[in-house]
């Protein structure tokens, strides 16, 4: 009562100018992300830009497109993966085939950006120093969200340009759908970053949310062929579809995004205003006063086991989903030549159900490689955070230190792919031995990428994050290459091109053996270098 | 064996930066050796070379009779290291880190661990991310002192500790020395160096500029003299040109100057010639000793080599 009557100048200084410094922090974030954001934006734009020429080559006439669209739209398995086919124009088909992937990538970009500029900064202690300057209490979160707005605007712009040739109206609708999806997950990540003390956990929460959104949409789309299922409407990824780019755009769905995003951003701000710097709402438990860790390997396992568990918990249900789609996909593709053609290029020349399963096995293999790269790069994190230094000042050789993390990077994917095989077999209802063989046949390719990432780290420790770029390149070659019919020289760059497409094909084990040899040689070179080089200081 | 660490003419460059430029260091077994120098002078680089984390580009280095690069693992069994900025794993408790470090070196002595936790008043159940700077430092100190290693390498180990804990740290170092351990202590806290160290080495721009016991270093430094004279007019001409005499200021009956040991005799004769009514002689404080070395011109200036030679003689 009396506080309200006070003139503005008499308010306590702490509450004054809560947004002070937002501009400076925003510029700092853009400066730090001057490489990262353009890479994401161009990657997503490139994926979309590759769509029209690739699909135009497959379906050259309107009649072919109509037939393909009808076939794919009638198939619940494909709808679960990619969403419903809402129209048979080339633009609509590109959005159908790549829209969900692009939306997921945009959401991941936004999640990572926001956590990087909020909880990461607090956890590292940098925020403390920044906040001691002329920086208002709301400035860091606002600047992080503004950074996400900028990145998502860029995605929307580039995505619109990528599909502009198919009709500006539809391209704009799709660009806005992507940007809006990204912003929604940025706001969700901002909320998650208030809840947990650890940035890693905040990213995990965001990823779980994204996974839930994907599953809801997949379930809804499997049930109905026009995106109208209530389950689809529960998922932001379903909203993005329901903007219906190139298929009678529904602009009002953007208002739904705006409302949800504003609500989440407001929630994040409210939570941020109610907590101390560095504190969280999910309380951290105290640790054990005594430890049982006694070897570098045990330490590596302790540091990495949570991540492996999280990946396994994501892999198994995804594999069950893929497995349960296999029969349906096979039934459809019996009478759709062009899509069968894609699947055969992805999965090999064999019975179509097997081709579908082999294609999904390949997708899971590449994802397992991303896990392997992340596990290898833990070495880089440990070294740059100066936690490796005191450890190596103990009677611990460099190779023994690296071996703990490498063992996880090499055995972890085997765990993931075994879980994938079990999931696929569970969903498919049969063929466990064949699926297990197919999944584990991916391992040499996974190991090759892990070995390359490790050796890059050993030789050029400062450039180690480029291991992600190499893995992503192989991922794009694997996903977009078959559709674009890329030349064999390019396809051969990815180790995944050389693993047999199982189940189904008559496996040729020679290239697999060659990959094992390559991975071992590359790994040995990296290990030799790690022993000889200076530690980063 | 009488020396724990011998480094001769160590060189190390990072790109175009010359971090170590002919550094010498000798630490005798059983002594507490102070390692001093301004920020960026190469102390931490030297320590990382001694730990085998960096490989020297030139020079020779022996640590506990071995080559720190080639024999890193067996040598590390016999030493303990505390960095100046301890980073812990955010999701491991301090107790887990202490026990991990102890087990990596050998069997853990639970009684010693409990005693040190009590003395440093450290709660081992807190997670790494919740410790303050001083408490992170304590985690590393408890791990190091619990190890009973024969060589302790401490790189600004007390940054962030409160004065009470500083006291505990000093008594731990003394106990280590009493048990015959060797300590290399890099520090900016001069009182800590003064009370703990038997000998010190001062480095600057990657070179050793001074090494010896504190008493011998003091002996090399200037004494500040203030004299009240009965008849200043009889003061001989050219007082400030006497060898080893500096900063002569006269103000009526008062004369203030600084004299190196070799100049003291001549300057006192000159002063007594003018009739000394009162005289105060202030021996150099440790602080002045260090500041003199810290403040010298940076490498590359014309007069530096001469100044360095003068200081080293």
Automatic annotation (TrEMBL), chain B:
The keyword Nucleotide-binding applies. GO terms for molecular function: ATP binding; ATP hydrolysis activity. InterPro entries: AAA+_ATPase, ABC_transporter-like_ATP-bd, ABC_transporter-like_CS, ABC_transporter_ATP-binding, P-loop_NTPase. PROSITE patterns: ABC_TRANSPORTER_1, ABC_TRANSPORTER_2. GO terms for cellular component: plasma membrane. It is found in: Cell membrane. This is ABC transporter ATP-binding protein.
